[in-house]
Amino acid sequence: MLTCTDLSFSYDSQKSFSFPSFSCEKGEPLLILGKSGTGKTTLLHLLALLLKPTKGSIKINGHELASLTPKEATQMRANHVGIIYQKPHFVSSLNVLDNLLLANYLADQKQSIEQAQKLSDNLGISNLLDKKTNLLSGGEQQRVSIARALMNNPDVILADEPTSNLDDENCDKVILLLENQSKNIGAALVIVTHDQRLKDNFKNIITL
Ligand SMILES: Nc1ncnc2c1ncn2[C@@H]1O[C@H](COP(=O)(O)OP(=O)(O)OP(=O)(O)O)[C@@H](O)[C@H]1O
């Protein structure tokens, strides 16, 4: 589903990264662990087609990302990749429901209130749908971010430090939600983090 081979990236001549090769099948979550500055967010942005590798290959469902035109890359990201960013980047003038529907709109998909309600039920945020996002707690924002990433039934879910601001109890809950939701929709799940608490939850772990 997602494979990366011999991936390298440079911001400039001073800052370059070589990443280990890996693959992630649907229903097989992968944890990428690394200390601050080891390139976790950079790797996630490569997988999310937000950066282009200087060398190597990334394939989603067999499609080589480097060979996509800019338009195809945008479509691939919107329709096949769900991203949970370190900071949520909501549109603060919209309520939670409209932030969720925006994900459909930006992917040129039919806006699905049913999907938003189903995900909100699963994630325990259905009582928040009419709230403005700046009124939510950190844990609530995290769950809305997960719902938004799943609105278009992506094939790959990428999560950047999803637990870094959470206490132990909410950390476990969020990981369980991510695992269950990715299983439900048959998506590959890649989590990048420095949070050592997650080590015991995953079978497949790569350390940067
Ligand atoms: N746009 C950029 N231009 C130049 N260097 C950058 C750029 N973005 C990130 N870097 C550098 O690349 C390195 C890796 O950054 P990245 O954010 O990928 O690391 P990280 O492992 O996610 O770190 P953290 O856990 O602190 O978020 C850092 O030293 C950072 O300063």
From TrEMBL:
Can you tell which superkingdom this protein's organism belongs to?
Answer: Bacteria
Task: Give the protein name, as stated in the record.
Answer: ABC transporter related protein
Q: Residues in domain ABC transporter?
A: 2-208
Keywords linked to the UniProt accession: ATP-binding, Nucleotide-binding
The record's section on Pfam families has:
ABC_tran
Output the InterPro entries linked to this UniProt entry: AAA+_ATPase, ABC_transporter-like_ATP-bd, ABC_transporter-like_CS, ABC_transpr_LolD-like, P-loop_NTPase
PANTHER family per the UniProt record, alphabetical = IMPORT ATP-BINDING PROTEIN (PTHR24220), TRANSPORTER, PUTATIVE-RELATED (PTHR24220:SF659)
Where does the secretion signal sit in this chain?
Answer: none
